[in-house]
Amino acid sequence: MSLQATLYRISIAFFILFILAACGGSTPNGSQTSRTSQNVGDEVISFDIHVFGEGTEITTAGQHLMEQPLGVIELRDGEQRNDSVLVMAVHGYDSRGYEWIVGLKNLADHYGSVFFFRYDWDQCPDQIAANLAAEIKKIERHGKYKKLVIFGHSYGGMVVTYAASELGKLKADIHVIAAPLSGFPKLLDECDKLSYDSGDKLKYPEWNKSVRLIQHRTVHAQDGAFRELASDPQEVDLPFYQSQELPPTMDGHRLGHNWSVTWVLDKHVGKPHRL
Questions:
Q1: CATH class entry, domain 31-268
Q2: Band of the pLDDT at 12, cuts 50, 70, 90?
């Protein structure tokens, strides 16, 4: 190959890289890219949630989601339908991610953009909550959000309940899904700064009246994470705006610990499942 031809190919390669950079670093297949979000102001991981197509194996999609770096991940569908609502999803302990895929797609279809918070589950819930609240405030400062909607599952439900007191006067609906709010000794053995009431149940800081906490409880006897426990760790005396038990079945199958996420998220956007 002549020197002139080599130089020509190099110039074409640099031109392609320049175009990709100008387009925000996106890749042809819609996979993840690190970029600076116009809404956030800080560098976040962002990718099109619909990279998980209809034929994508849901466990593979979940693994891809949980392989993302710790922190905030923005999941988009290419359109911003409601930029007045900030939506945040928070996974549970040792999550494999698959339980979120369908619901996150539907949330992105409904709102245009949602955020997923990846955290180190070896930390205590109050520590994780402080990091979550800081991330939310960072995002909120750079947007025109009028309302916050948070979904926290299992251990993530404990996290978002602790975070409720750190949101100030921001109007927020916090959905707590299949969460062991009264405490879960195996997860909290080293969390010696947490407070308990006289009945050995976790105590949470009070939150502002602008925050509404909505609890979604699974049926204790068929929740794979809780059914071996003598008492239901979802039972706790908190000033919930609403507390409801989920049905025992979804689409003809047992509605257990993980699929409770799909039930709640899909119902939220007006796509309820049959029993």
A1: alpha beta
A2: very low
